Amino acid sequence: MDPNQMKALDQCHPDILRDVDIDKQFLLRMYIDNIITQAQSEDIEQETTRRAKASKLLEVLPRRGPSCFRQFVNKLRQDYHWIAKKLDTEYEKAKREIPKDINTKLLDVYNNQLCRLVHGVYDQSSVLPLETHPEYLVNQISDSVRILHIRCYRALGISLRDHDPVITCLSLSQLIDRKVHSLQNNLNELKWSLYEEKKKKNKSNIIVLDQKYEKEITKMKKTLEKQKEAYKKLEHSMKVKTKQMQSLSKESTVLQTQNQQLKERVQELESTLVYQRQTSQGTMITEWKM
User: Fold this and answer.
1) For residues 249 and 254, what is the distance between their CA atoms, to the nearest angstrom?
2) CB neighbours of 118 closer than 8 A, spacing ≥ 6?
3) What's this model's pTM, rounded to 2 decimal places?
4) What φ, ψ does residue 38 adopt, rounded to 5°?
């Protein structure tokens, strides 16, 4: 039997001991339907009192498998319908109840994980005490999950009023992947747009630079032309001066030659003059003596 079936039997244990008459006919029906074995039936029958027989049967039933509970309830329904009804009620009640260990685990998950995600680490006002009722705990978990659901949708830019079947059928991880893919596409488009703008800007800059360089080149060409003209003038002036220098050099040579001739002529004249003086003095002396 599963724990819920065993719990239902425990809850109805006093009623079965008090009301159910475990006689040979009842045990025979239990044996025929394979609820108990023949050996178990004989062991139960050996008990001397009705309550002892019922107690022995309740010890055997939990070891007979999960289908045994429903068969036993159906047998009781024939003569002990109130006990069968109570067993059904207790079984359904046990199924709805949350075991204490599960409640503790759920409380730990809520306080240490879910509550921190929704309310933050430092918000201690939302932490639930250990004695929190399971139903209230489940409601708090449900509310927290709903808040997370709303926040996740808002973070992903999805409207809660959007009933698109593609969105409603996707898990949170799939929605995140979908959003990341969309952002990547937007980023790539933005990069491409920036690249095109940069390309246009570079092209316009190149045109501006070309115009600027063209003006500078034109200016440099004009300057170069002026320098060429100045150089031609200077070259012509140099040629003229060279010719003048050559002419002056010739004139200087002629003048030097003439100067040399004049010096020679002066020396001749001086020699002649000296000779004449000497001759004149000799003549005067001769005349005086005479």
Assistant:
1) 9
2) 126, 144, 147, 148
3) 0.39
4) -65, -40
pLDDT for res 271: 86
Which residue ranges make up each domain of the chain?
3-96, 100-155
CA 101 to chain centre: 40
Alpha helices in the chain, H assignment, sequence order: 3-19, 24-32, 38-45, 50-60, 67-79, 81-96, 100-109, 115-119, 134-155, 165-168, 172-289
What's the confidence (pLDDT) of residue 84?
92
Query: Using the 8-state DSSP alphabet, how is residue 36 labeled?
Result: S
Query: Which residues are CB-contacts of 178 (< 8 A; sequence separation ≥ 6)?
Result: 170
Give burial (CB, 10 Å; 0-12/13-18/19+) of 27: buried
Least confident of 59-63, 85-89, 133-137, 265-269: 133-137
Instruction: In whole angstroms, give the CA distance from residue 148 to residue 153.
Output: 8
> For residue 88, what pLDDT is reported?
92
Q: Look up the CATH superfamily of 3-96.
A: Death Domain, Fas (1.10.533.10)
Cα-based distances in Å from 134 to 1, 41, 96, 100, 119: 25, 41, 11, 9, 21
- Are 153 and 159 contacting, i.e. CB atoms less than 8 angstroms apart? yes
User: Which pLDDT tens digit goes with each residue over 139-179?
Assistant: 888 888 888 888 888 887 777 676 666 666 777 777 788 78
